[in-house]
Specification:
Elements lengths: L3 E2 L4 E3 L1 E3 L2 E8 L22 E3 L6 E2 L8 H7 L9 E2 L4 E6 L8 E7 L17 H5 L3 E5 L4 H5 L3 H9 L9 H16 L5 E11 L1 H10 L10 E5 L10 H15 L4 H5 L3 H15 L20 H7 L7 E6 L7 H5 L5 H15 L5 E6 L16 H5 L11 H20 L19 E4 L2
Parallel strand pairs: 2-5, 6-7, 9-10, 9-11, 11-12, 12-13, 13-14, 14-15
Antiparallel strand pairs: 1-2, 3-4, 4-8, 8-10
Helix pairs in contact: 7-9, 10-12
Length: about 450
């Protein structure tokens, strides 16, 4: 399926075995210069055929802080480590379609990374396994850290002067919404069904999905949602609190105007943001996260769930046994952790409000090769089917578990129900026993 013509111009992708991949499709203008700390603007059209054959830039992020565990797990191959740049608002598409009228279901994946790092073409992400099951995969980059989520009275005042609501922050989530809008407007050219989009994410990507399903701005943009290792981690962050963090940031930077703030280098931005970020470490409260601004978010996360004001669509949610904010001794005593408790609250609220349905999983596979267990992000190898890119000594049982998860996930993307022929039954949640354990 090459080339493909979008509303903005034609794209040349890469034909692979059974599918075509398009890397680095612009869904918004580069948010640089005067567009730094402003909502995303629609991309500019181009003439001729644009190459979509190479990974795009990563969003601006710190790249010089080694993490021995996760670097070995996900970030050890240089070909995936593209330059970090503010010119990063691109998405990638894997499609098995041969013609634009096929109307295949679409999965829109948002990467994690604590809203500070990560990118849509990490080595564990790939759409080949989804394409073999008749699903189009889209991954997206969005603005991160203080570039993507800084709120400040100067920015709020500028927004008001430009005819807005007098708010700031949330640029990274607005990027995701712009990407979703681009997909709805253009995915049919890639053989996709704009009315059958599943938005999904893990960790901060899942927190992003919780934001999207809680927002009045996204009604009609997707029909299903998958939230992995995230419910219970999101916290209410008001605009006034975020603006106070912004004032601390500008004081640290020694700037006295918005013009001076926009002129800061990324290194200067991160130096000024460092003390603000450090304050949140003891309680896992990051300052650069979505804020309740009466526009993107009108209420708190838990309040939206308990009141049943999240979008009334099918959900697939879950956590890992050794996920973030868990302790092995406490797990042995029956305390399964903050994210498990969050999924319990979510499922109960969905049942009480007769929303959903919601399907819950518990990933307990202790990954082979070390003693890290079912750690935060470990399920990604399985649900993307990219285990051949990992150093771990997988067993036949691991490969079978990956196929099982891919079947469940793609069935859910197609019809809002993970069940299918020859698969173990997965009941929608009505009580705690209605939780599917995923293991070899």
């Amino acid at each position: 399926m090459n080339p493909v013509t979008t509303n903005y111009g034609a794209l040349q992708g890469i034909d692979q075995a059974g599918h075509t991949v398009f890397y680095g499709i612009p869904y918004a203008q580069p948010p640089v210069g005067q567009l730094r700390w402003r909502p995303p603007q629609k991309p500019l059209p181009w003439q001729g055929i644009r190459s979509a054959e190479h990974f795009p830039n990563r969003s601006m992020q710190e790249t010089d802080r080694p993490d021995p565990f996760y670097d070995k797990e996900f970030y050890d191959q240089p070909e995936y480590q593209t330059p970090a740049s503010e010119d990063s608002l691109y998405l990638n598409i894997w499609t098995p379609a041969k013609a634009p009228w096929e109307k295949l279901p679409v999965a829109f994946y948002i990467h994690g990374g604590a809203f500070m790092g990560g990118f849509g073409h990490e080595k564990e992400f790939d759409g080949a396994a989804y394409c073999r099951r008749g699903v189009i995969l889209v991954t997206v980059n969005y603005r991160l850290g203080p570039i993507g989520f800084l709120a400040h009275p100067w920015l709020s005042q500028e927004d008001k002067e430009l005819g807005g609501l007098g708010i700031s922050g949330n640029y990274g989530i607005l990027d995701q919404i712009a990407a979703l809008q681009w997909v709805r407007e253009n995915i049919q050219a890639f053989g996709g069904d704009p009315d059958n989009i599943t938005v999904m994410g893990q960790s901060a990507g899942g927190m992003s999905v919780q934001t999207l399903v809680s927002s009045p701005l996204t009604k009609g943009l997707f029909s299903k949602a998958i939230l992995q290792s995230c419910i219970g981690l999101s916290y209410d962050h008001t605009l006034s609190e975020a603006e106070q963090d912004g004032l601390e940031f500008s004081n640290n930077a020694g700037v006295h105007s918005l013009e001076e703030m926009r002129a800061l280098s990324f290194e200067q931005i991160m130096a000024a943001a460092g003390p603000v970020i450090a304050k949140g470490f003891p309680t896992m409260r990051l300052p650069y996260t979505p804020v309740i601004d009466s526009h993107l978010l009108t209420d708190g996360y838990d309040a939206n769930v308990r009141k049943g004001t999240v979008h009334p669509i099918p959900y697939l949610v879950g956590t890992n046994e050794n996920d973030i904010a868990t302790d092995r001794k406490e797990i042995a005593q029956g305390n399964l952790g903050k994210v498990w408790d969050g999924t319990e609250m979510w499922c109960q609220a969905m049942a009480d409000n007769r929303m959903g349905p919601t399907y819950r999983y518990y990933f307990t596979r202790q990954l082979p090769g070390d003693d890290a267990g079912a750690f935060h992000s470990s399920e990604l190898w399985y649900m993307f089917g990219t285990m051949d890119r990992c150093w771990r000594p997988w067993t036949e049982g691991d490969l079978a578990l990956s196929r099982l998860m891919l079947d469940y996930w793609t069935n859910f993307m197609k019809a809002g129900d993970p069940n299918g022929q020859s698969l173990p039954a997965w009941r929608p949640w009505q009580r705690p026993a209605d939780t599917l354990r995923l293991d070899v």
